[in-house]
Amino acid sequence: MATPTLKPNVGVYTNPSHKLYIGEASPSLQEIESEQLLQSGEVVLEMKATGICGSDIHFWEHGRIGPTMVVEDEHILGHESSGIVVKVHPSVSHLKPGDRVAIEPTIPCAKCVPCLTGRYNGCEDVLFRSTPPVPGLLRRYIPISLVNTNEARQVHPAQWCFKLEGLSYEEGALLEPISVALAGIERAQLRLGDSLLICGAGPIGLVTLLCARAAGATPITITDIDTSRLEFAKKLVPSVNTFQIPLGGPDTTPQNLAKSINDSFYSTAGHPDVAIECTGIASSIATAVYASRFGGTVFVIGVGKDVVEMPFMACSVKEVDLKFQYRYANQWPKAIKLVKSGLLGDVKMLVSHRFTLEEAEKAFETVKDRTSKSIKVMITNE
Ligand SMILES: NC(=O)c1ccc[n+]([C@@H]2O[C@H](COP(=O)([O-])OP(=O)(O)OC[C@H]3O[C@@H](n4cnc5c(N)ncnc54)[C@H](O)[C@@H]3O)[C@@H](O)[C@H]2O)c1
Ligand SMILES: OC[C@H](O)C(O)[C@@H](O)CO
Ligand SMILES: [Zn+2]
Ligand SMILES: [Zn+2]
Questions:
Q1: 0.90 exceeded by pTM
Q2: ipTM strictly over 0.95?
Q3: Which of 113, 242, 264, 315 has its CA 20 to 30 Å from the CA of residue 224?
């Protein structure tokens, strides 16, 4: 690969005053250009595609997610990324300029019990790109290292980079939300022939739909308050049933909604076997619980308020298996195989808008503005 002309390193920041802006990022152009300034084992990645996640919008708009993830300083966003190797320290032999990789944004400690038992998403000392105070991936360059994790220099360990194997950069960036859905399906124990209810047709509900179809769930119904998202779901997976959750009106209690959903779409068995909740909204979780069969599973991926009122007795008398998810573990290799094989369908359909790094503000406004009808907004550099 011919040595590309490198540009100054910039990143997309938010701060405690809820500003969104482009600013200088680490490492500097001078550090990147001089291979001597790279440390042993390091390579530099030029980011090629980064998807904007709802949590990026949350950190920008509200400055926090829950009580512990709080923007207290200038903070780089982004954790759905892929890129290309542009510089390599002479000590590195397994990567060369031109190699294309996707980044898993988790940096676990590898020492605590969750790490040692394979559930490193529960790491007690985790660093997760874009969750404050760990700077995210939405910048032009990031150093990757085989031998150390130097957080002061914002180096990401090579262990958490996966070769793209022919996938496009955008598909590489989509591996992150796909990993969320795959982890959910794995822990919800969704099986071939299970009937499924997906609550919420945002990017997470939609990738869950693609993964659940591949896993053999049938029938599948997806809900949303927004008709345009349901129309998109139908375009993505024509066999899916869609159900619009009305805002207000006499029949909008979770019990009534659950009954309408079940009467419309689960008439054979009466109820879905599994519900995967992808909104984090209390009334939607309640609808999933009321729709559930005896011994059914309600699996909550959505996140929301610190305390949420739940239909406790409905869970109790139906022995509902109520489960939750926190990010993912061990999903990238599986996600790459699934996208590459075509089993998930055309995941690129999820990308509704593309912007350059310099247009990041417009990109973030597009995600926030529901009239834009965006699904997955990408910052690309291809
Ligand atoms: N657990 C995890 O590790 C994890 C990882 C990624 C995302 N998430 C969370 O998953 C959720 C979904 O993410 P997303 O990117 O798709 O978000 P999103 O906001 O784009 O999508 C949520 C969808 O839910 C719909 N909705 C709102 N109220 C509803 C209701 N009452 N019934 C049905 N639908 C309703 C919205 O119209 C929207 O289309 C968010 O809460 C996000 O923070 C969790
Ligand atoms: O995709 C991963 C999620 O966005 C993160 O867990 C975030 O919600 C909190 O760090
Ligand atoms: Zn995310
Ligand atoms: Zn750990």
A1: yes
A2: yes
A3: 315
